[in-house]
């Protein structure tokens, strides 16, 4: 357990700063590389599925793959087809109640949000 409540934010701040310096030196650019600040906070379950959908659709929006589950570094395959990657840490795929809730959801509703299977 971190000793400070902002330990994670401090870690990401240092990592972002060092990578930005490296990137700017390599590309000859100046200024900020990252937009916005890292804000560590737990997600309420109401927002969790929207956040998962957002993250898993990023490779599709970026044009890297046609379907989120085709991106090799995504958890989408596990969530969509229940296929577990042996390199995965096991969370949340090993959390049976979480997986069962995800399996009971489908993309649909307003803006393709996750909604209960069979409607909603």
From TrEMBL:
Gene3D superfamilies: Transposase IS200-like (3.30.70.1290). This is Transposase. InterPro entries: Transposase_17_sf. GO terms for molecular function: DNA binding; transposase activity. SUPFAM superfamilies: Transposase IS200-like. The lineage of its organism: Bacteria, Candidatus Desantisiibacteriota. GO terms for biological process: DNA transposition.
């Amino acid at each position: 357990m971190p000793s400070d409540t902002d330990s994670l934010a401090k870690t990401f701040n240092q990592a972002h700063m060092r990578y930005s310096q490296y990137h700017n030196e390599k590309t000859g650019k100046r200024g900020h590389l990252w937009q916005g600040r890292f804000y560590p906070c737990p997600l309420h379950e109401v927002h969790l599925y929207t956040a998962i959908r957002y993250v898993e659709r990023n490779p599709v929006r970026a044009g890297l793959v046609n379907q989120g589950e085709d991106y090799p570094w995504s958890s989408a395959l596990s969530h969509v087809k229940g296929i577990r990657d042996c390199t995965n840490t096991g969370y949340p795929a090993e959390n049976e109640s979480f997986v069962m809730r995800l399996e009971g959801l489908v993309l649909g509703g307003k803006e393709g949000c996750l909604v209960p299977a069979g409607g909603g």
